[in-house]
Design brief:
Its EC number is 5.3.1.9. The chain is an alpha/beta fold. Helices cover 47% and strands 13% of the residues. The protein has two domains: 5-41 and 227-410, Glucose-6-phosphate isomerase like protein, domain 1 (Rossmann fold); 47-226, Glucose-6-phosphate isomerase like protein, domain 1 (Rossmann fold), CATH 3.40.50.10490. The structure holds 5-phosphoarabinonic acid. 5-phosphoarabinonic acid (PA5) binds at residues 81-84, 141-143, 146, 149, 203-205, 289, 417.
Length: 448
């Protein structure tokens, strides 16, 4: 049994029982298509079985690499973009305390990210910062040819070669890439970098439980065994339970698709803990890139409450009625704060004396759920007992599975991303890449 719970108590009033039942039936059919691997994109379904399939040896190899990095580096620069970056960052940021390292993280290195944009200032400051630091690089690219990480890696490799000498670079670079194809694989073979394989049948946004996510997470000091245990628990549950038995992924997929038919075209992922902000970024890529096709798809957005209630709250409460919310609730903080009484009560907060800060946050959440529902925004709630490796593993696998089901319900291939090539081709043409001469003429003629 997984620990994650879903509730539609603040969404139900927007839907009829018949519509919910119909969507649940569609969700169950989509679940079967996913499990039987008979739908579009079925060559990229390796992620479905991944948690249950990872061997102890694979995890051990990753832990050994993480320990090597920890033994000689203060920093690990994780170079990747999109699916080759967001999963690791989502987990690391969800679990890393803001102001201190926990006991379990004594051996960790600090993770820095690069290659996820093309900003010159960021990269020049990063290179200057690393000049006198001990660091390693984990370069992650399935294709091995993506421009952003390739540029960042070229810059970092030059710095590493200058600092440590070409011979020693292979102790500090870990490449996560295709088994045999791509420029990164060739470079890794030439230099002798240790390599980790991204399986052929796992696409970028579904790759967090491969070395793409697991090596940086292990280097950051977190237990990849526990993360995988959580994912495995969720895998078992979602594979074995049908929609009529209360499969939580089919419930989520059914309700969001039912709401979509009612004009709720934007889904906002809401969390009340800042640690989850990169989980929202990962979720946006997962659902946006999987479902936004052929003129269809719910637009995935995210906010951080209560912070954004003071900026986006007005629109959500009262703006165009095309929104639905999915709220991630973490029931218990790791450490609570008690509010005490003050004799003068100048700030007027004595009415809260004796309460925990988590109770105040929960009241803000409940008050907001009621207000938004009453304002015309249906809200789903996903509850986790606490934030730790197991729970994050459960949550990530839950969203992956629900996304596959939901994409099939919508009638798209949830495992391709043809639309992301267009900007790249224009950029290559503008930069004068060989083979793009004709496109350059065409696009420039449109902006003259
Ligand atoms: O989900 C995806 O497929 C994309 O986000 C890719 O992961 C991203 O474009 C990076 O690609 P690559 O790993 O080939 O560098």
């Amino acid at each position: 049994m997984s620990n994650l719970k879903i509730s539609d108590r603040f969404a139900k009033s927007f839907l009829t029982e018949t519509l919910i039942q119909n969507e649940l039936e569609k969700a169950e059919k989509a679940r079967q298509t996913l499990l039987q691997k008979t739908g579009p994109g079925n060559e990229f379904l390796g992620w479905v079985d991944l948690p249950g399939k990872i061997s102890g040896d694979d995890l051990q190899k990753l832990r050994v690499a993480a320990e090597t990095i920890q033994s000689h580096s203060q920093f690990l620069v994780v170079v990747g973009i999109g699916g080759s970056y967001l999963g690791a960052r989502a987990v690391i940021e969800a679990l890393t305390p803001e102001f201190s390292a926990p006991e379990t993280q004594k051996k960790s290195v600090k993770i820095i990210y690069a290659g996820h944009h093309l900003d010159a200032d960021y990269h020049s400051r990063l290179l200057a910062f690393l000049e006198n630091k001990e660091f390693s690089v984990n370069v992650i690219s399935k294709s091995g040819t993506t421009t952003e990480p390739a540029i960042a890696f070229r810059l970092l490799l030059s710095l590493l070669e200058r600092k440590y000498g070409r011979e020693n670079v292979k102790k500090r670079v870990f490449a996560t890439t295709d088994r045999e194809k791509g420029a990164l694989k060739q470079l890794a073979d030439e230099y002798g970098f240790p390599t980790f394989v991204i399986p052929d049948d796992v696409g970028g946004r579904y790759s967090v439980f491969t070395p793409v996510g697991l090596l940086p997470i292990a280097a950051a000091g977190f237990s990849i065994n526990k993360l995988i245990d959580g994912a495995k628990q969720m895998e078992t549950e979602l594979k074995s339970k049908s929609a009529s038995d209360g499969n939580i992924a089919t419930i989520y997929a059914a309700i969001r698709n039912a709401l979509y038919t009612k004009g709720k075209k934007t889904e906002i992922l809401v969390s009340y803990t800042p640690a989850l902000s990169f989980l929202s970024e990962w979720w946006k890529q997962l659902f946006g890139e999987s479902e936004g096709k052929t003129g269809k798809g719910i637009f995935p957005a995210s906010v951080q409450f209560t912070t954004d209630l003071h900026s986006m709250g007005q629109y959500i409460q009262d703006g165009e009625r095309l929104l639905m919310e999915t709220v991630i609730k973490v029931e218990a903080p790791k450490q609570d704060v008690y509010l005490t009484e003050k004799p003068d009560d100048r700030d007027g907060l004595n009415y809260l004396a004796g309460k925990k800060l988590s109770e105040v946050n929960q009241s803000a959440m409940l008050g907001t759920l009621i207000a938004h529902r009453d304002g015309g925004v249906p809200c789903l709630e996903i509850t986790l007992p606490t934030l730790n490796e197991e729970m994050v593993g459960e949550l990530l696998y839950f969203f992956e599975f629900a996304c596959g089901v939901s994409g099939y319900m919508l009638g798209v291939n949830p495992f391709d991303q043809p639309g992301v090539e267009d900007y790249k081709n224009n950029m290559f043409a503008l930069l004068g890449k060989k083979g793009f001469e004709k496109r350059k003429e065409e696009i420039l003629s449109h902006i003259r």
